Amino acid sequence: EAQVTQNPRYLITVTGKKLTVTCSQNMNHEYMSWYRQDPGLGLRQIYYSMNVEVTDKGDVPEGYKVSRKEKRNFPLILESPSPNQTSLYFCASRRQGAQTSYTFGSGTRLTVV
Amino acid sequence: DQQVKQNSPSLSVQEGRISILNCDYTNSMFDYFLWYKKYPAEGPTFLISISSIKDKNEDGRFTVFLNKSAKHLSLHIVPSQPGDSAVYFCAARSGTYKYIFGTGTRLKVLA
């Protein structure tokens, strides 16, 4: 089944404790992206990647890092999480092309206390 | 500054009637628009899209209309069904890589 898999689904952590949210896709998509969803703000892009070793900042990249060492994986790293990073996170992928749609993972609900 | 706006946070419609969800954008350079549906505890799923060279695209019960002069996009669902109850996001493509999403509209279809 074609899908984007994120782990974990739920995570509660403490301020300052580094964490990684994993994302993997099995569709051989070139593009991958991380979004966060917050009430009243919709989905905002954190980082995106156009292919292996090629990444760029989205609209809200502060406090996040990403890497794209393999085509299928695109982990999101929070080096020193803070409470304002409490949010619902989605990883998404799409194939290269002008008019393609993102396939989203099921989400990771992160709480930073 | 929100470049893609969905001004109605919620909408209730009777089963069988038409649901109309609206979306406004500010950047005339956007060239591709999409609608996504999101159920609780799931990721958004792609519903329908439209290129800026068209003004209408239809897929079964779902039709998207694009009015470029007004910078306005709408999604029509006819007839509405209880299973359509979800949050709907519109999105616009900015450049090659960025998709900008709106804030979402929660649709409730009443049986």
Describe the structure.
The complex is a heterodimer of chains A (113) and B (111). With 113 residues, chain A is mainly β. Helices cover 0% and strands 50% of the residues of chain A. Chain A has strands spanning 4-7, 10-13, 19-25, 31-38, 42-51, 54-57, 65-66, 76-78, 87-94, 103-104, 108-112. In chain A, strands 2, 4, 5, 6, 9, 10 and 11 form a seven-stranded mixed β-sheet that branches. A four-stranded antiparallel β-sheet of chain A has the order 1-3-8-7, with no helix packed on it. In chain A, strand 4 (31-38) and strand 5 form a beta hairpin. Chain A is globular and about 40 Å long. In chain B, 0% of the residues lie in helices and 57% in strands. Chain B has strands at residues 4-5, 10-14, 19-25, 32-38, 45-51, 56-59, 62-67, 72-77, 86-94, 98-101, 105-110. In chain B, strands 2, 4, 5, 9, 10 and 11 form a six-stranded mixed β-sheet that branches. Chain B is globular, with a radius of gyration of 13 Å. The model of chain B has no long low-confidence stretch (mean pLDDT 95). The interface between A and B is medium-sized, with 26 and 26 residues.
